[in-house]
Amino acid sequence: MEGIDGVEGVGDVEGIEGKVVAITGAGSGIGEATALLLAERGAKVVLGARRTERLEALATRIEQAGGTATWAPTDVTRRADLSRLVELACERYGTLDVLVSNAGVGLISPLDELRVEDWDEMIDVNLKGVLYGIAAALPVFRERGSGHFVHTVSTSGLRIVPTQTVYAATKNAVRTLSEGLRQEAGDSLRVTVVSPGAVRTDFAERMDPAMKAEIKKLMAESALAPDAVARAIAFAIEQPDDVDVNDLVVRPTAQR
Asked: Which residues are catalytically annotated?
């Protein structure tokens, strides 16, 4: 599209049209919103999450609206599941252009409670899940000479607060990993980190009752809709291949 004085308009869908995009954590929240938006803009989406009934329903919804989608059960703590998701993209659509590593858990609690199993789970999902995605997609991107990693992290890693220590640590580990990947990627691969603030998702469902009530109150008062983060992800993806949007922070205006 042409903008003022012949300058190309911002937000052209041509940068998304036809791209094959795999998304983890696609069963709800940011992942679901991203899948819907990208499919609406012409991407072929490959959906991964643990809850297969949600994936099937989402794929059906996308197809009924005229989009293109497929899905595979995906537990990001299992390296084989990430390999299978990438293989599905290549088998069904011939390639993979973008991997959105969005799956995550936030089992926040004071360190004194010593919830070591929760710590382990956050490390396995939030950090190792991203690493397994890189291991699955990087060889495909190298072979085709282009590709785009998008990693969902959190503003919790930008402003450290009590009870979110381990969660923030896993997100900052992904931030560091992403910068290292960007530097190693050369001039053919792109790496984007998206840091959402408070977003209306099921993030709090597995917290203890008191913590859950506090987070839900915050969400009700000022949290963003998942679509806001989806639009940021779409913005990064739709840029020309020689434009690498590295770091996006998307938070409610009222959040400090």
From this structure: 167
